[in-house]
Amino acid sequence: MDIATNQLNGIPWVVIDPLPGGTRFYRISLVSTGESLGDLSQLQNQVFTAGEGFNTIQYAPDGNLAFIVWRGNQLLYRQRNPAGNWLEETISGGGGLFQENSSREDWHFQPGAALLFDSASRANVFKIEGAQVVHYFRGGSGQWTVKARLSAPDLNGGIAFLRAAIGTGNKLHLGLIGVGDTPAIVYGTDLSGNWQWSRVTNIAAYPRYYLPPSYAARYFSLAVDAENAAHIAFTPEFRIHWTTSGHARPYSELHYTSNRGGAWSFNKVYSPPNDDSGDAGLGYSIAIGKNNQPVIAHWYVERGNGGSAQESYLYLAQFNNGIWSRSLVLKTPDGYVAGDGEKGAGFAPYLRVDEAGHPHILFSDHASEHFTLGQNEYAGQIRHTWHDGSKWNTRTVLQQQSPMLNQVIYPAFAISGNEMVVTGLLRATLWNETDYPRTVRSNYRFMFLDRQRIQ
Asked: Which residues of 374-402 are buried (b: 16+ CB within 10 A; e: fewer)?
């Protein structure tokens, strides 16, 4: 029987036998991982996640697995059929090139993109191109064509974030956030046969620039229900209160909106309960669960008087009769601990719902350490938790040590039956602790973990 599958990448690999007792014998066997196309994990600082990872890896209805990724300035499409055979195609150019020794958030330099399969297993890719979204379509011959160039209003001349979903009848849906400090959230759909756009709301004081670049948060998420109604989770504002001693006290809330009733209606899902220091809107993912109702996996971090992270939690919020209720999923990291001691888990969650309606969440652990110029926070490892109908089950998919050195950017996954495939961006960092905001030198490697069994 298969116990575990792992792509060997120089990181220690721990395997736990699920069957106790008796005398057991083991062997390691090689499986196809698409390396005949070239191992993307070996191309340091050349291969990057498209956008924030949402909908960048998918199983098609016909059983094909595919993902999109930036290699250099080319947007690539890799697909594996059920027999295990891979193909690679170039969708487009238009990407950027990694700049070493840059103090900016290096994983953000590539344009956002998303991959969707329709009911006939045809691939659709949406990519940000300046102030437009380009819709690429893969025909039966494997040729990529531009199906549409979409221009939406109220984006201030550019697009910072893109989210995409496909609904009943292969209807397409896009959520966009424009550029600037107070951008609009814009929604578009071809539900009527032509693309129609609406401004959902505006965001205040966004994004949060002061954060050290060890963070790769997910601030915006879109899901579509069985009636092609859109559901959006968003952060309405990032507030920073400065103490008399010069410490930044961040505050954010998690909000929700939907056009299910015909017009956009808004609800607050959660806000920091104690004071004006805490983050409820620093990372979340929305999906459609049982009874066609939205569910949100979200991370909450409680902060102290000086703004430093004290503890963090992973929650699942569920919507019933117009009211959001939350339940704690997890709060303990799996050994990912820096100088401040144990902090928590659940950073940058990615929520998917399986065929049985059970939620699966992929996330990172949270760590921090104080230095002369304040606290550094880190997010690393890849962990998976899922609800089997009676309880949560949690495992570590990728183990890391030394949070200051090792982080993970935008873990993403696809599930089919009891099989899961995971991608992400590994980051190895050297920090300059004499500067604030802190400058860093990082190296990045793309990661593909194939055929992770869900027991």
From this structure: bbbbbbbbbbbbbbeeeebebebbbbbee
